[in-house]
Amino acid sequence: MLLCILIYTRTGCGLRTTVKILGIFEEVLEGACGEAPSYNSVSNWFKKLGLSIYEEDHPVNSKYAIIMDESITINREKLLLTLAVPAEHKGRPTNHADVKVVGIQVGKSFTKDDVSEEVKRVGLNVGWLPDYAISDQGHNLVAGIAAAEIPAHRDISHALGNCMKHVYGEEDDFKELTTKLGKIRLQYHLTDKAWLLPPNMRTIARFMNLECWVTWATKMLGCYGNLDDRMKEAYAFLLDYQDLIGELDVCIKAIRHLEVLCKTKGYCRDTHFECMHYILRNVIGNANSRRAKLGLEMMDYFLKESILIKKLPDYAHNISSDIIESDFGVYKDKHSKNNLSGVTSSVLILPLYPVISDYSTAKAQDFKVRLANVKLREIEAWAKSHLSPNWAIERSKMLNNVG
Fold first, then answer.
1. Over the stretch 257-313, which tens digit does the pLDDT of each residue have?
2. Which residues pair with 152 in a beta bridge?
3. 193 CB-side CA count, 13 A
4. How many Cβ atoms from other residues are within 10 Å of residue 191's Cβ?
5. Bigger pLDDT: 209 vs 174
6. Contact 272, 302 (CB under 8 A)
7. Measured in whole angstroms, how far is the alpha carbon of residue 217 from the centre of its chain?
8. Within 10 A of 23 (CB to CB), how many other CB atoms are there?
């Protein structure tokens, strides 16, 4: 059973593929690993285990922080997820084994009051409120966490991405360059020039994901002299934006350096001063007014975040919400591809995932007892009280109920 759960949760395999892999093991090992289960059994197993862990493993035996975020709209709904993470940074980037899913809420939207109530509910279940919270700069999350009277950090990646947006988002040369990059992707994508096209620019969180195309543009300028005449003509427009591309490259590298520093060491007084000195040397320095403005915005972000570490000075803080974005990716990978489904009980993979992300932790779990203690009707009851009706199922029932 453990092998089955590990294959399904830790790979990109679906339920049926997992069963096929187990069938191969059964054939090669001549039945030593037991008979392969049906895909329905695998589905029931991970939902039972997820529900058991979610409802029974709430207590946190030390100081903790929460990471909150809401997903993009899935059909007509959003998923509001809350993770508990040790309040003291571990001196390395946070991984799945460090977190515990303490809140799963589904709805069309979440107001400030909804977020505040969820924070208080988590605190009640754990036994005490978190030391602090981490979120992106979603207005409802910021306001709701503040209403619950919990100190909060702004996620470093979202915050520095917003700094870039404030400085460059409305600049004429930046808008001209991104417009041209979009046009050449459409113009050349079915031609023999497509092999050198820039990466696609994301619509959502664009300023958090500038690195890929800025790096492409920098490399294209570096190898421009090696291109043939046709390719030179196609990409000659980049020469007009050399200064901007060089400027963006410096800014992106600075942001990545600051992110790696804070995600690896945690955010404390030492890393705060290290970040401030780095910005002064490498972003502001002798830069033009635009890059200097970016440096000042970045320093303002760190100055505001430092207020919280002055209030809680005994340990380094987590200041990144990357792990919750990864959780959304885990759920998206396992979620039904039918757009009518909305958020389904497969969301129970999220409480299970941290437990099985490390093999030694997974092996120590008494999964058989957990399976025996959770009935299928409990999963149905949980889904009924926490999730909206599944339109895909409703459609199938209606269309098949003919005559």
1. 999 999 999 999 999 999 999 999 999 987 678 999 999 999 999 999 999 988 777
2. 133
3. 15
4. 10
5. 174
6. yes
7. 26
8. 13
| DSSP state at residue 31 | T
Residue 50 near residue 351, CB atoms below 8 Å: yes
Residue corresponding to tokens 């113009």? 187
Place of tokens 């009851």: 381
Say how far apart CA 204 and CA 72 lie, in whole Å: 10
CA 209, CA 142: separation in Å to the nearest integer? 23
Residue type present at position 109: S
77 pairs with which residues across the strands? 74
The answer for residues whose C-beta is within 8 angstroms of residue 75's C-beta and 6 or more apart is 339, 340, 341, 342, 343, 391
Read out DSSP for 189-242? TTSTTGGGPPPPPPSTTGGGS-HHHHHHHHHHHHTGGGS-HHHHHHTGGGGGGH
> Taking the CA atoms of the chain, what radius of gyration do you get in angstroms?
25
**Chain segment 81-112, per-residue pLDDT in tens:** 999 999 999 999 999 999 999 999 999 889 99
Residue with tokens 């800025």: 214
* Burial class for 136, CB neighbours closer than 10 Å (0-12, 13-18, 19+): buried
Contact 177, 240 (CB under 8 A): no
**Among candidates 108, 163, 99, 169, which has minimal Cα distance to 140?**
108
Residues listed for the chain: 403
Structure tokens at 392: 């895909």
* CA distance linking residue 294 with residue 247, whole number of Å: 11
Whether the CB-CB separation of 265 and 316 falls below 8 Å is answered with: yes
CA distance 346 to 331: 8
Q: What is the pTM of this model?
A: 0.90
Q: What is the largest CA-CA distance in the chain?
A: 79
Cα separation, 350 vs 327, in Å, equals: 7
Nearest to 60 by CA among 86, 21, 30: 86
308 vs 138: CA distance, rounded Å: 19
Sign of CA dihedral 150, 155, 158, 164: positive
- The closest of 119, 45, 43 to 81, measured between CA atoms, is 119
